[in-house]
């Protein structure tokens, strides 16, 4: 996922607000992991995923290393063995445990990781008022970094539980969560109506500015702001639904080579794919166990290959990231179905309306744009500069956030990125077409 630090332009509303948001973010991570046993939290279902315990530990390592170790004189590490275990990919931080072997870390225990978190949280809160601005900016980056891991924690545990023949539920589908899935605590949330008919909304045309505008936090891959030329096009009013995907399947979508990119067709054949991830016999696996597929909800857990094939089948294409961003810029990025509290997140239909719907939240929307640097891009100095730039190869941009993205984390310029074959995240699509 994306990330950035820019000390010179860090915009913080004060130490007390930073302390409050730090505490709230750290608490939500614990709430998400609360239903897990030590065994649940230690297992790793595939190399792309990490154990829940590792997410809790890695986010703690980030604050201990980059804030306390580097900016609090006299601070001593909680355990000097932990950096090797919980560094992710920072070469500047030295050697580390292999990503694909994180599931072998049965020790430290989940309780020991929680104790480490408590220790680091207390130390940050005590140190925060006296820390320099550079450390405050790192705490802000750490909050944003942990929010990304909150979504990863949910998607990774969903993938893990889906491998279990018992189909265990992380949460029961309680009534209060049903309403949150529909509106996720939005002020005017109401029960969802069936998705309306897909319509086309004309997009911006000509020279437009894209990228972060300099106000508030942003990751380094979102800057600098620059101008692009958009040709006449339109975007679909809403994401593609499960019902529309079922039509694609029924029409032989997964068996028609002409719809697929070469790499995508090879992936379909090699993996014997015939439906989105977690679909089986008219049901789908969720964080509350196996459920009937809602035909009106946005389709999710599809990769770029699948999204591109569906667009070809529909006589359309994927939007570019700049078309998407220009369309979303006037909209409220805190609206829609996003994560407010621990619970069984799952994309849901929203009431039909005019204009562009569900641009933020619900599902990450694939674009046809490669994840590459903007003109003039410069990575941040130091180890945190490894967060984004070195991943700008072979991946594609997704926009808008999902039902598992913490509310307030995304904006129109936000650039998520994954490889074309990956689909364990809450990924969907919105069609585009040329005019």
Concise structural overview:
The chain has 435 residues and is of the alpha+beta class. It has helices at 15-33, 38-42, 52-71, 82-86, 110-127, 133-162, 175-183, 242-250, 262-271, 304-313, 321-328; strands at 200-202, 206-210, 226-230, 233-236, 279-280, 283-286, 289-292, 364-370, 396-399, 416-418, 427-428, 432-434. The strands form 4 sheets. Strands 10-9-8-11 form a 4-stranded mixed sheet. Strands 1-4-12 form a 3-stranded antiparallel sheet, covered by helices on one side.
Description:
By secondary structure, the chain is an alpha+beta fold. Helix content is 33%, strand content 11%. The protein has helices spanning 15-33, 38-42, 52-71, 82-86, 110-127, 133-162, 175-183, 242-250, 262-271, 304-313, 321-328, and strands at 200-202, 206-210, 226-230, 233-236, 279-280, 283-286, 289-292, 364-370, 396-399, 416-418, 427-428, 432-434. The strands form four sheets. It has a four-stranded mixed sheet. α3 runs antiparallel to α6 (133-162). The model is unreliable at 1-12 and 176-192 (pLDDT under 50).
Radius of gyration, taken over Cα atoms and rounded to an integer in Å: 21 Å
Q: Which runs of at least 5 residues are low in confidence (pLDDT < 50)?
A: 1-12, 176-192
Count of helical segments? 11
Number of strands: 12
What portion of residues is helical? 25-40%
Order of helices and strands: HHHHHHHEEEEHHEEEHHEEEEE
Q: Work out the strand percent.
A: 5-15%
Q: Judging from the principal axes of the Cα atoms, what is the shape?
A: globular
Which sheet architecture does the biggest sheet show?
Answer: 4 strands, mixed
Query: Which structural category fits the helices and strands?
Result: alpha+beta
Mean pLDDT: 91
Strand order within the widest beta sheet: 10-9-8-11
Between the first and last Cα atoms, what is the distance in angstroms? 32 Å
